[in-house]
Amino acid sequence: MTEPVLIGYAQNKFIKDASTKAMTLYARTNGGTVAFAVNGATYQVPVGKKMVCLWVRMHKTTIPGSMGIYESATSGGTDTAKIVFHAEAEIGYNTAQICPTYFEVAATKYFTLNCANQAGSCIALVVECDA
What we know:
Shape: globular
Order of helices and strands: EEEEEEEEEEEE
Strand order of the largest sheet: 3-12-7-10
CATH topology: Jelly Rolls
Structural class: mainly beta
CATH class: Mainly Beta
Largest sheet: 4 strands, antiparallel
Number of domains: 1
Helix content: under 10%
CATH architecture: Sandwich
């Protein structure tokens, strides 16, 4: 019997098959809300699929404050908070926060980053699979 190929991070594993794939998504903003992208194109969870976020790395380059990751019906929305990070003044600039996590984003939704009045970016390891 052939061992299945597993993809994922830490304790969260998925069997790699034709309908399951791991991706790295990226978002960057100088303030406001932007959708995550893959290969330079805005990422929207396909119909019949879900996206599972397994790991995020948040990076803030300007003033301390909150950064949030959201599930949204629009590419610039903040409908449902998934994670909100808050960097205090003592941490300083050019700080990065790395967080293993697990949350799902539903089919047809966008995965967005909000950095109010500040520059920031985020890299996320996600798995797209059947809903």
